[in-house]
Structure formats: C-alpha cells, structure tokens
From TrEMBL:
GO terms for biological process: phenylacetate catabolic process. The lineage of its organism: Bacteria, Bacillati, Actinomycetota, Actinomycetes, Kitasatosporales. GO terms for molecular function: phenylacetyl-CoA 1,2-epoxidase activity. This is Ring-1,2-phenylacetyl-CoA epoxidase subunit PaaA. SUPFAM superfamilies: Ferritin-like. It comes from Actinacidiphila yanglinensis.
C-alpha cells in the first residue's frame, strides 16, 4: 500500500480524473531537472516497486555479504588483521541497516523483506555465493568486490530517490576504506613468501570473473535497465560500469604483480579502454537461480541467525511498548494535574 502522502494523492485522484496526469507531470519535471524524489512525493507505482526491489536486494547483499569474510574473523593471522576485518564486517551490517531503512520510507516492511530473502523470493548479489578457502580471499574481496561496489555505488549517490542517494554517501566512504584494506593486505602478502604470492594469485583467478558478473547481465539482457535509467535510479548501464571496473583494476593488478585470468584482456588504443573477454553468463544465471557453490549455506546461515535473534526482536518490542505506556501515563498525569 502507498505510504501516507502518496496515499493522500491517490485519494485526490479518485475525486479528480486529471490529477494523475498532473502528478505524473510533476514527477517527470522533478526527474528532468535532476532533483530528488522524497518519500512524501507522489511517484509512479513502477518507480516505487523498482526502488523497493533494488534497495532490498542491495540491503540483503550487504547482510549476506558479511558471511564470506566473517568466516575469517576468528582465524585472522594477527590482532591487527582481526581488528580491521571485524570493523569491515560490522560496516557491512550498518550498510544493510541504512538500506532497509531507505526501503521502509517507500512503505516496505522490514520483517517482510527478511522473509522474502530467506524464502528465496528476493535476490542478493551472486558474488556472495562463492567460498573463501584462504585468507587471500579476504584481501581479494576487499580489492575486487568492494572495488566493484565503489564503481557501482558512487553513481548511486546521484540516484533520483533521496533516501537511497543519501545512504550511498556514507556507504561509499566506507567501501573506499574496505577496498584499500584489501589491497594493502594483498601488497603485504605479495612481499611475503612464494607460497603467499601463489595464494594471492589463486584467489585472483577465482574471484575475477564472478566480480565482473556483479554488475549484472549484459545490457542487451538487462530487462530493468531502460526504466531505471529513465527514472535516474541507475546512472550508468551494467556494461558501462563493468568497463570502468576493468579499466580501474588492470593497473592495480600490474602494481601488485598478479595476472588477471583473461587472455583477451588488452589495452585498446582506439577506444582508450581495455578490451576483455566475455564472462560465462550461464554461470551467473545458475548462481542467481540458487545453484552456486554456497547458496544453500548462505541462506541457511541467514535463516538460523534470524531465528536465533527472535528473542532480541521480542525484547526490543516489549521495551518499546513499555516506554510508550510510560510516556502515555506521564501525559495523562500532566493533563490531570
Ligand atoms: N546477482 O535487469 P538487471 C557489497 C538480477 S554489497 C544477483 O540488470 P538491475 C559488499 C537483477 O536483480 C552491494 N542478481 O537488474 C558487501 C534482476 O532480477 P529481478 C551489492 C542479479 O536491477 C559485503 C535480473 O538479474 N551491490 O558491496 O537493473 C562485502 C536482471 O538484471 C545480479 C548492489 O546491490 C547479480 N550480480 O541491475 C563486500 C548494487 N545482477 O530483480 C561488499 C545495487 C543482476 O528483476 N544494485 N541481477 O528479479 C544494482 O546496482 C542493480 O540492481 C544491479 C542489477 C546492477 C545489480
């Protein structure tokens, strides 16, 4: 159901048949002038639905995304690495929370979104369905996955929906720290033993193609892009952002001393960009459909955490009810005095 002000606008429409086209014209003008749509504003139902879909998936990705690296918190090789990793994983939890709050401004219900995630009715990023067998994976996730997140999310700071765009500002600052900590970890490992260098190269080989898939299917197979671009929810297409990520990452790989596992990767002087090979799109489809290496494990763990946390939600709700009852009693006392 539409949120408060939007609902009031719908009631106006019931009385005045021209109202919807005027509301639509106002919305189009706001988008045309590159201004923000806010929760109180009227918006087309498709815009609201697209935002809830994308923001919820984004929030789910942040929360599920805590798992692959979280597995290494108890096994980090030093206190310093443990503290950094702990902080990073906590940041991802914070990102999930801002994003669920942004979805709530659109009338979505947080408990319902969680239910949709654990029942498989809503998606989360394919990238978090791959395993993290070595500590080099922690570094490569920071470098590639947070690097890809920066390419994708910096433009989202200019997304047309105010609460989503504003949430992205802080998230991007934190992703930037995450990317650097990953790269710094890898630089340290590359200065270590031959076995450590081989471990980094192995992680790079495993994460490169899944990282390119994070940007979504190629533009020709992206059913949501056209509308999202017209509404300025997305500012660049999936392929544009993928290209940006490749161009950003190649010189970093050279500096690090690793090889990116793509024989077709080369600089194209004419385009002023890198040419690169085609990801295995059938793999992306399989992983999104639930058949990746760790899908079952990730969802089972999220489900267990949700069930284990029931008492916390119940206690918080009981506390809030008690506070509200006390506040009401104080109001009555005040009125009686
Ligand atoms: N994985 O029409 P398309 C992080 C789905 S976490 C799974 O191109 P759209 C981090 C897509 O949803 C941040 N599903 O869609 C955390 C759609 O399905 P539905 C992760 C994918 O929305 C912890 C269908 O395929 N980032 O940084 O226009 C540790 C067709 O696609 C994927 C975000 O969430 C995928 N890779 O564009 C470290 C960014 N790709 O919904 C780091 C926000 C596509 O129609 N999201 N699908 O059933 C976006 O920017 C856009 O939603 C996408 C897809 C570019 C991902």
């Amino acid at each position: 159901m539409a949120a408060g002000p939007a609902r009031a606008a719908e009631q106006d429409e019931d009385r005045d048949p021209g109202a919807e086209s005027r509301l639509q014209a106002g919305f189009d003008a706001t988008i045309g002038k590159d201004q923000r749509i806010e929760p109180r504003d009227w918006m087309p139902e498709g815009y609201r639905r697209t935002l809830v879909r994308q923001i919820a998936q984004h929030a789910h990705s942040e929360i599920i995304g805590m798992q692959p690296e979280g597995e290494w918190i108890t096994r980090a090789p030093s206190l310093r690495r443990k503290a950094i990793l702990f902080a990073k994983v906590q940041d991802e939890a914070g990102h999930g929370l801002y994003l669920y709050s942004a979805a709530e401004t659109l009338g979505a219900d947080r408990a319902d979104l969680t239910e949709r995630l654990i029942s498989g009715r809503q998606k989360y990023s394919s990238i978090f369905n791959y395993p993290t067998p070595t500590f080099a994976d922690v570094g490569v996730i920071g470098w590639f996955v947070d690097g890809a997140a920066i390419c994708n999310q910096v433009p989202l700071c200019r997304s047309s929906y105010g609460p989503y765009a504003r949430a992205m500002v802080r998230i991007c600052k934190e992703e930037s720290f995450h990317q650097r900590q990953g790269y710094e970890l890898l630089l340290t490992m590359m200065r270590g033993t031959q076995a450590q260098r081989a471990m980094v190269q192995d992680a790079v080989d495993r994460w490169w193609w899944p990282s390119l898939m994070m940007f979504g299917p190629p533009d020709g197979d992206s059913p949501n892009s056209a509308a999202s671009m017209a509404w300025k929810i997305k500012r660049h297409t999936n392929d544009e952002l993928r290209q940006r990520f490749v161009d950003m990452t190649v010189p970093q790989a050279e500096k690090l001393g690793v090889t990116l596992p793509d024989p077709q990767l080369r600089w194209n002087e004419k385009r002023g960009r890198h040419d690169f090979g085609t990801p295995d799109w059938s793999e992306l489809k399989r992983v999104i459909a639930g058949d990746g290496p760790c899908n079952d494990e990730r969802v089972a763990r999220r489900t267990a955490a949700h069930e284990d946390g029931a008492w916390v939600r119940e206690a918080a709700a009981a506390h809030a009810a008690k506070q509200a009852a006390r506040a009401q009693a104080r109001t009555h006392e005040g009125a009686a005095a």
